[in-house]
């Protein structure tokens, strides 16, 4: 007998195909055969919660109960993150990008943390810039989005385990965090929280924002997409980036196959090439028509 039929919750090949096709259609995440154990492990929690005995029951439930779809997506999506993860990106933001804004006296600054998970990336960006930019002179806003509604609730609260406090540079943690008495947690201070606006967003669905953004962080996301999905999202990023704006991706990712609109400027850091206004207008119309 197939080992998947001997598990706590039997899963047939048809069940797995249904689940991975559903995940792909709604999130763009590709789940090959080798991810079957991960799918089983993460969704088993939902089956226990719903008192189902088999994955076939759960698949039928998904077909008839649309309200379960967010729970399904939340269970499947990966949320590994950390404060100042891939530190060189924040060094580049501090030492290379920010001085350009100051030199150009650029008053409006917009940054997007796509796939922000529980908020550590967005707050790391805010801490990096808070002491470098005079908020009385500059209009700085950070948009942070994620597909997973549960992690966004954690992000909005800005409360984290004291165990991760050492991952924040000491000069930042002393100024921008505060311990929560009688707990093993700390909170991000309000002045940092005020710079970040958290919103739920599915990268495969229409994007409500107009841009332009000066920096887009989209790290460790493309590894879950197939080539066509990746290409489509990169093109949409370009339409929302200002000329000379930056796209920052994860350490194991590359956009070289789709990088005609970008130039490589640093480790997994790309800068948007100059484009004419008519081209961008036409390109944006094409993308909107394809959605």
Automatic annotation (TrEMBL):
<keyword id="KW-0949">S-adenosyl-L-methionine</keyword>
<feature type="domain" description="CheR-type methyltransferase">
    <location>
        <begin position="4"/>
        <end position="275"/>
    </location>
</feature>
<dbReference type="Pfam" id="PF01739">
    <property type="entry name" value="CheR"/>
</dbReference>
<dbReference type="InterPro" id="IPR050903">
    <property type="entry name" value="Bact_Chemotaxis_MeTrfase"/>
</dbReference>
<dbReference type="InterPro" id="IPR022642">
    <property type="entry name" value="CheR_C"/>
</dbReference>
<keyword id="KW-0808">Transferase</keyword>
<keyword id="KW-0489">Methyltransferase</keyword>
<dbReference type="InterPro" id="IPR036804">
    <property type="entry name" value="CheR_N_sf"/>
</dbReference>
<dbReference type="Pfam" id="PF03705">
    <property type="entry name" value="CheR_N"/>
</dbReference>
<comment type="function">
    <text>Methylation of the membrane-bound methyl-accepting chemotaxis proteins (MCP) to form gamma-glutamyl methyl ester residues in MCP.</text>
</comment>
<dbReference type="InterPro" id="IPR022641">
    <property type="entry name" value="CheR_N"/>
</dbReference>
<dbReference type="InterPro" id="IPR026024">
    <property type="entry name" value="Chemotaxis_MeTrfase_CheR"/>
</dbReference>
<dbReference type="InterPro" id="IPR029063">
    <property type="entry name" value="SAM-dependent_MTases_sf"/>
</dbReference>
<protein>
    <recommendedName>
        <fullName>Chemotaxis protein methyltransferase</fullName>
        <ecNumber>2.1.1.80</ecNumber>
    </recommendedName>
</protein>
<dbReference type="InterPro" id="IPR000780">
    <property type="entry name" value="CheR_MeTrfase"/>
</dbReference>
